[in-house]
Specification:
The chain has 13 helices and 6 strands. The protein has helices spanning 18-26, 45-56, 62-66, 69-72, 79-86, 121-134, 144-153, 161-169, 182-187, 189-200, 206-215, 218-223, 258-271; strands spanning 3-6, 9-12, 35-39, 93-96, 113-118, 177-181. The strands form 2 sheets. A 4-stranded parallel β-sheet has the order 4-3-5-6, sandwiched between helices. Strands 1-2 form a two-stranded antiparallel sheet. The chain has 285 residues and is α/β, with parallel strands linked by helices. It binds adenosine-3'-5'-diphosphate. Adenosine-3'-5'-diphosphate (A3P) binds next to helix 2, helix 6 and helix 12.
């Protein structure tokens, strides 16, 4: 089997271990000075990570050009990420795709900052379909139709999008949690980057913000081997794999049939009932 299971959720088979999930949840000590990017996979994680790293370096691109994403901001729930982070001194920057109930529990009594990135689940689904198909990290069915069924049931990597969102959004009023959508980042990147700076307590000059925008742009990240996963071992990826794929909002419209869009909507409405629509900018797109 190419999957690892933990608490009823499927994870990729390589780089993960149920024992590590347990330790991460129960024993990992989150520090007050930590900055953590949290997302459901394919929500624009790496874009946010790039922005966070560049804010940290005041727009200097050296770090993002010399160190791969997963070393600059390791995924805490992976075996190597956990090994690295648990002994790291000082303030740390790291990443996680964990749903809230599997997240390090020490976070909830800390002042560490979480940036929770969200994206239209239809685009998350399409982005995931191409990503998982072109890599051998997590096996998925051939057709988008079959993948959609699994996605809606939560039988995909990291479980249900709906549960992930509901869990993390319950934290949205906390001072140390900032919710950022892919859609607002696309629509007004500067304003959103300034919002992230303010949340992180970083005062960047306008020209430094210009550099953050330049080096986290789609084109720059696509060409930067340290961001665009071109260093993944060949055994993981198909030929012509580009992690930075299309980078737009609403690509789902090119892939869903009318019937699929309706079926998706029905479940979306049921599961997301009760949330103010303005929380989710994709409802206006
Ligand atoms: P698409 O597959 O729709 O193009 P994650 O990092 O969570 O895996 O998300 C990957 C998605 O973010 C991909 O979406 C990718 O193209 C997009 N992305 C990455 N960097 C980006 C950038 N600088 N600007 C816009 N989108 C970006």
């Amino acid at each position: 089997d190419s999957y690892v299971w933990f608490e009823g959720i499927r994870f990729p088979g390589s780089g993960f271990d149920p024992e590590v999930f347990r330790e991460v949840r129960d024993k990992f000590v989150v520090k007050n000075e930590d900055t953590i990017t949290v997302t459901y996979p394919k929500s624009g994680t790496n874009w946010l990570v790039e922005i966070v790293c560049l804010i940290h370096s005041n727009g200097d691109p050296k770090w993002v050009q010399s160190v791969p994403t997963w070393n600059r901001s390791p995924w805490v729930e992976t075996i190597p990420g956990y090994e690295f982070l648990k002994d790291q001194e000082g303030p740390r920057i790291y990443t996680s795709h964990l749903p809230i109930h599997l997240f390090p529990q020490s976070f909830f009594s800390s002042k560490a900052k979480v940036i929770y990135g969200i994206r239209n689940p239809r685009d998350v689904l399409v982005s995931g379909y191409f990503f998982w198909r072109e890599t051998n990290i997590f096996k998925i069915p051939e057709t988008l139709k079959e993948f959609m069924e699994l996605f809606l049931q939560g039988h995909v990597a990291y479980g249900s999008w709906f549960e992930h969102i509901r869990g993390w959004l319950s934290m949205r009023e906390r001072e140390n949690v900032l919710v950022v959508s892919y859609e607002e980042l696309k629509k007004d990147t500067r304003v959103t980057v300034e919002k992230i700076c303010e949340f992180l307590g970083k005062k960047l000059k306008p020209e430094e913000i210009d550099l953050v925008l330049k080096y986290s742009s789609f084109q720059f990240m696509k060409e930067n081997k340290m961001s665009n996963f071109t260093m993944l071992p060949d055994s993981y990826v198909n030929e012509n794999f580009s992690f930075i794929r299309k980078g737009v909002t609403g690509d789902w419209k090119n892939h869903f049939t009318v019937a699929q869009a309706e079926a998706f909507d029905k479940i979306y409405q049921e599961k997301m009932a009760g949330y103010p629509p303005k929380l989710f900018p994709w409802e206006e797109c």
